[in-house]
Design goal:
6-stranded mixed beta sheet, alpha/beta, binds iron/sulfur cluster, 13 helices, single chain
Length: 417
């Protein structure tokens, strides 16, 4: 149950937002709101899981998550887009009531207050989840799967957290690594490469590979060790492919020109992403203090623009944690004010041909911001809608970050409309 029982009276409802923005698909508004409020599954919905067929999140403490029930990894909507629900929501003390996935007339549906809103299905398990690497460990340890994408994490710890106060305040990754007693920051690339090779034996399943991980600040120059780690990994994976470039995305710290050129020249990487996260300099410096102290807001943007020169227009994007600019006490206090500042920065970045891969900010257990309140649904819809208008204006191409390959950024879904 929501911690503020009156929350529905304080903001526009799903139906009211859909009515107010008739040019955006209602199913997309629901998708944004599910990511904002989270989901829980009824017993009937869990009984629909076939672990032989479906990808199951079995309550293991992994990556960004803490503990979860046996539940589907995530959902697919009727329009074929993904609804990613495996983020770590705080369902014991939620700001708002989560949506409920239930079974009605033998169909799996999303409901709210008993009203059926949409039919959904569960993600299927890839073949490699049943296989083991040559060291006997399950391959699912080395890579995870979205419906069309393989995800690899190079470093499970983020070294911004080595200095108190420097970790991004919305991010639960490093705190949860500590909480679960994690010691193995990185896995041997040999087993990751074996997993990718095996995964691509499943015909028609995967169309891209995404690599990411926590920041590594060490090296001759800052981030050199992170760069070398990704190059080693990309080279090992790249041996599985004959093409000069493979449909791949790296989400890393912001490399400088020398590092970007090395990355491009020594690997088959196709697209590059570095996450500015917060679209306002002052709020970035408060929320992402490590990024601000070691690189800086303006320099982060400058490196993004430099990446376009190396990887090409359409092959660079930046992640944003949309809504976190309204966190307390250092954030904007008014959604309209936040919107105006965010859009001004968004246009500057998008005008370079860079797509903004914006996540809906959720308050994750383990994060410094875990007990914060997130913005209204209308704020997200209005802002995403304007990102989409700007992306069309500057002819952006999300490619590896689009609704099929990634699916985590609802704003990208609009680019196909
Ligand atoms: S850079 Fe920030 S968002 Fe990324 S892993 Fe580190 S703390 Fe989390």
């Amino acid at each position: 149950m929501a911690r503020d029982l009156e929350w529905r009276k304080k903001e526009l409802s799903l139906d009211e937002v859909i009515a107010k923005y008739p040019d955006v698909p209602p199913i997309w508004v629901l998708k944004v709101d599910v990511q904002r409020r989270g989901v829980v599954y009824t017993k009937a919905a869990k009984d629909k899981i076939d672990p032989e067929i479906h990808q199951v999140n079995q309550g293991t403490i992994a990556g960004f998550r803490t503990t979860q029930d046996y539940a589907p990894e995530s959902l697919i909507l009727r329009d074929g887009s993904y609804l990613i629900t495996n983020f770590d929501f705080d369902n014991t003390n939620p700001q708002r009531d989560p949506y409920v996935v239930d079974v009605v007339d033998d169909k799996i549906v999303i409901t709210d207050q008993g009203k059926v809103l949409e039919e959904v299905s569960y993600w299927e398990k890839p073949d490699f989840y049943n296989k083991k690497a040559s060291n006997g460990e399950p391959m699912s340890k080395y890579a995870t799967a979205r419906p069309q994408r393989i995800d690899i994490s190079m470093c499970h710890w983020c070294h911004f957290w080595d200095t108190p106060g420097e970790g991004c305040k919305y991010c639960p990754m490093a705190p949860n690594f500590k909480k679960r007693g994690g010691t193995e920051e990185r896995y041997d690339v040999k087993y990751i490469a074996e997993t990718v090779k095996e995964a691509f034996k499943q015909k028609g399943r995967f169309s891209s590979i995404m690599l990411t991980g926590g920041s590594i600040l060490s090296g001759k120059e800052i981030l050199d060790d992170e760069l070398d780690g990704y190059i080693e990994l990309l080279q090992a994976i790249g041996e599985n492919f004959k093409a000069d470039r493979i449909p791949s995305q790296l989400i890393s710290s912001a490399f400088n020109e020398r590092q970007l050129e090395k990355l491009y020249n020594e690997t088959k990487l196709l697209t590059y992403t570095t996450d500015i996260e917060v679209l306002n300099k002052e709020r970035f410096e408060w929320i992402c203090a490590g990024k601000a102290n070691h690189i800086g807001y303006e320099e982060w943007k400058r490196r993004l623009y430099a990446a376009v020169d190396v990887f090409g227009r359409g092959n660079v994007s930046s992640g944003v944690v949309l809504g976190v600019e309204l966190a307390k006490p250092g954030g904007f206090t008014d959604e309209e004010d936040a919107y105006n500042h965010v859009i001004e920065q968004a246009e500057e970045i998008i005008s370079h041909g860079i797509t903004l891969a914006a996540n809906v900010w959720r308050t994750s257990p383990g994060a410094i911001f875990q007990n914060q309140d997130t913005p209204s649904l209308e704020y997200f819809i209005k802002t995403y809608r304007q990102f989409d208008i700007l992306s069309h204006k500057y002819d952006c191409n999300p490619y590896t970050d689009d609704y099929r390959r990634c699916g985590a950024h609802p704003g990208m879904d609009l680019l196909r409309v």
